[in-house]
């Protein structure tokens, strides 16, 4: 019950953050698209796609480091946490240097025959790319600090930092609207500078507030621990890097065959799915430390319960926002963007469906990581990550439509879910029939029911604004009813009821 209370409190804080940041970020995207134009926005999505990759890399590597810290906290060993922090700092300094070398070498090939960029914008694209490489270095160095904040479940500071970031991004977008400089160069520079600034803030905060943030490599160096963390981080990095390259590869493949105009539509789809998906992934940031600490304390049963409840609740949180957007996306996009790029609506719908499939199994990956035996899983997962790109490249070579890329990735997500289930069974003692019965089936049935009910307004001749209002209302009401009676099992309702009584007793 205490763990559930902490998750509920931290999730509430993070949702307050999201409620503020999502709308600011989406409005900032509208301003940036208007300032850059479709062609330059698509070009930034190709070259500056490194930023999106780095955000994914940073959060995934932070989860790997946080796993060791939370596990040690579950054991109640502060000295071990200090050693983990120091070993992690050394490790990520090496990774940061390696990443810079790899990106600079890759940049040479990108700009000499791979990327499809207008000749007059090649030099600008190179400048943006170097900004992103600098940002990479500081992003990787920040991973231990991100892990410390998460392992302490300090979601208040995380929320404040997120709001500051959103407001500064809005400031950048407003600046671009009036800047006399090349908008693309200015956007690349300011985006990289913002990333560095936020990372410095994390570092200062952690050293002032957490005992384990004591850098003394000679005192806290431990060869066996360094080997263990390096092995775990290395296999995690393999899985993360392959997934990251596969996602960035989508951008490259589309650029090669269709150019930067179609990349603009892809950039919009990435923004929307990223912002909406953040609502569900926010809960995972609050849940992951509980999974790791439970396993660290030897409580496998609590770890599996948290895993199953987390997958189900994060899926429901996703469809709460996804269903109205999926149904009314053309109208929403016409209100949001001055010029809606071709394929933007189609890409976004297919991308959201893929996210829903991934969400069904998302916490199982955290459970596998908590147990710690990730080598074989990451090898299989890394190989699987590249299949969609290879298949899509072949399909495009035979002139298949561009949206086939997303269809291939949806099939890949289904195969990935089967892979995760099989490893969760062998490594975490998960019962697949119980998971399918308690998580997958309630989620799928609920999604179909809410979707059908939310389509009712289309049976009537309503104007678009009124129809959108009815779709949101019906979707929200049906969501609450379906979630309670189909989504929750009896035990989960017993946990939630005290929170509901507490909320209503304050009214």
UniProtKB/TrEMBL annotation:
<feature type="transmembrane region" description="Helical">
    <location>
        <begin position="402"/>
        <end position="423"/>
    </location>
</feature>
<feature type="transmembrane region" description="Helical">
    <location>
        <begin position="313"/>
        <end position="333"/>
    </location>
</feature>
<keyword id="KW-0472">Membrane</keyword>
<feature type="transmembrane region" description="Helical">
    <location>
        <begin position="155"/>
        <end position="178"/>
    </location>
</feature>
<feature type="transmembrane region" description="Helical">
    <location>
        <begin position="466"/>
        <end position="490"/>
    </location>
</feature>
<protein>
    <recommendedName>
        <fullName>Polysaccharide biosynthesis protein</fullName>
    </recommendedName>
</protein>
<feature type="transmembrane region" description="Helical">
    <location>
        <begin position="184"/>
        <end position="201"/>
    </location>
</feature>
<feature type="transmembrane region" description="Helical">
    <location>
        <begin position="379"/>
        <end position="396"/>
    </location>
</feature>
<feature type="transmembrane region" description="Helical">
    <location>
        <begin position="353"/>
        <end position="372"/>
    </location>
</feature>
<keyword id="KW-1133">Transmembrane helix</keyword>
<keyword id="KW-1003">Cell membrane</keyword>
<feature type="transmembrane region" description="Helical">
    <location>
        <begin position="127"/>
        <end position="148"/>
    </location>
</feature>
<feature type="transmembrane region" description="Helical">
    <location>
        <begin position="42"/>
        <end position="64"/>
    </location>
</feature>
<feature type="transmembrane region" description="Helical">
    <location>
        <begin position="12"/>
        <end position="36"/>
    </location>
</feature>
<dbReference type="GO" id="GO:0005886">
    <property type="term" value="C:plasma membrane"/>
</dbReference>
<feature type="transmembrane region" description="Helical">
    <location>
        <begin position="90"/>
        <end position="115"/>
    </location>
</feature>
<feature type="transmembrane region" description="Helical">
    <location>
        <begin position="435"/>
        <end position="460"/>
    </location>
</feature>
<dbReference type="InterPro" id="IPR050833">
    <property type="entry name" value="Poly_Biosynth_Transport"/>
</dbReference>
<keyword id="KW-0812">Transmembrane</keyword>
């Amino acid at each position: 019950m205490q763990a559930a209370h902490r998750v509920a409190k931290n999730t509430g804080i993070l949702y307050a953050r999201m409620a503020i940041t999502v709308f600011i970020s989406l409005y900032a995207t509208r301003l940036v698209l208007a300032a850059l134009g479709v062609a330059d926005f698509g070009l930034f999505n190709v070259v500056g796609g490194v930023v999106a990759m780095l955000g994914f890399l940073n959060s995934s590597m932070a989860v790997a480091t946080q796993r060791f810290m939370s596990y040690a906290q579950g054991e109640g060993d502060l000295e071990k946490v200090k050693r983990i922090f120091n070993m992690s700092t050394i490790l990520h300094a090496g990774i940061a240097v390696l990443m810079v070398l790899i990106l600079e070498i890759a940049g040479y090939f990108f700009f000499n025959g791979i990327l499809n960029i207008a000749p007059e914008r090649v030099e600008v694209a190179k400048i943006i790319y170097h900004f992103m490489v600098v940002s990479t270095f500081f992003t990787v160095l920040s991973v231990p600090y991100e892990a410390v904040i998460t392992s302490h479940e300090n979601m208040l500071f995380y929320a404040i930092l997120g709001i500051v970031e959103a407001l500064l991004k809005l400031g950048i977008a407003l600046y671009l609207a009036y800047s006399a400089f090349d908008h693309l160069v200015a956007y690349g520079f300011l985006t990289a500078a913002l990333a560095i600034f936020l990372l410095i803030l994390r570092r200062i905060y952690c050293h002032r507030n957490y005992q384990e943030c004591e850098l003394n490599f000679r005192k806290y160096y431990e060869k066996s621990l360094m080997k263990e963390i390096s092995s775990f981080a290395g296999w995690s990095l393999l899985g993360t890097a392959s997934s990251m390259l596969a996602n960035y590869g989508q951008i490259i493949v589309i650029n090669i065959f269709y150019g930067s105009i179609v990349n603009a539509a892809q950039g919009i789809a990435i923004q929307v799915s990223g912002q909406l998906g953040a609502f569900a992934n926010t809960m995972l940031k609050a849940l992951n430390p509980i999974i790791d600490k439970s396993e660290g304390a030897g409580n496998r049963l609590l770890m599996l319960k948290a895993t199953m409840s987390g997958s189900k609740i994060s899926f429901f949180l996703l469809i709460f926002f996804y269903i109205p957007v999926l149904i009314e996306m053309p109208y929403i996009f016409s209100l949001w963007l001055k010029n809606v790029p071709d394929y933007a609506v189609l890409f976004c719908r297919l991308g959201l469906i893929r996210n829903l499939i991934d969400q069904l199994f998302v916490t199982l990956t955290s459970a596998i990581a908590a147990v710690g035996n990730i080598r074989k899983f990451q090898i299989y997962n890394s190989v699987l990550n590249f299949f969609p790109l290879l298949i899509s490249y072949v399909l495009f070579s035979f002139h298949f439509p561009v949206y086939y890329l997303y269809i291939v990735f949806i099939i890949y997500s289904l195969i990935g879910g089967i892979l995760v289930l099989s490893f969760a069974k062998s490594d975490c003692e998960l019962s697949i029939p119980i998971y399918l019965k308690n998580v997958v089936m309630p989620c799928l049935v609920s999604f179909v029911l809410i979707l059908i009910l939310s389509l009712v307004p289309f049976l009537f001749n309503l104007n678009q604004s009124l129809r959108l209002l009815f779709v949101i209302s019906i979707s929200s009401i049906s969501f609450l009813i379906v979630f309670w009676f189909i989504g929750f099992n009896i035990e989960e309702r017993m946990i939630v009821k005290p929170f509901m009584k507490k909320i209503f007793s304050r009214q």
